[in-house]
Amino acid sequence: MKRVRILLIVAVLFCFCRSLSAEPLMPRVCFKDACFNVELAATEETRRQGLMDRKQLAPDQGMLFIFDALGEYGFWMKNTLVALDMIWLDENKKVVHIEANVPPCVSDPCPIYSPLRPAAYVLELSAGVATQEGIGLGDVLQMDIAR
Fold this sequence. Notes:
- By secondary structure, the chain is of the alpha+beta class.
- It contains three helices and nine strands.
- Strand 1 and strand 2 form a beta hairpin.
- It is globular.
């Protein structure tokens, strides 16, 4: 009986220690059946850094920029090493503008990409993913992320 107790304690400690070392789960957002694990850019600092200096971005990964108010937020590709799809969404998480296959900026001044309508969110994905997944104007992003 003592041996069983010891094994049970060791098993619980093993599971506990493993959960401490596991990477935290990333928030997940979806358009219909296309889901993406996203990093959040909800502060001025994280929005300014964005995806700069990243050498790759998996097709099921992205970054969700969250703004405090509706606005016509422009984005550029300064120090961004991978091509991206940029998807602007309104306060209802409905797609209002898409810039597809935006290339990295290779010389200054870098172009600024802006939406045609105000947005509250911008989702950046690997270039080509929006077209591949059939994401278009009017589509609604599903997410469980507190603003």
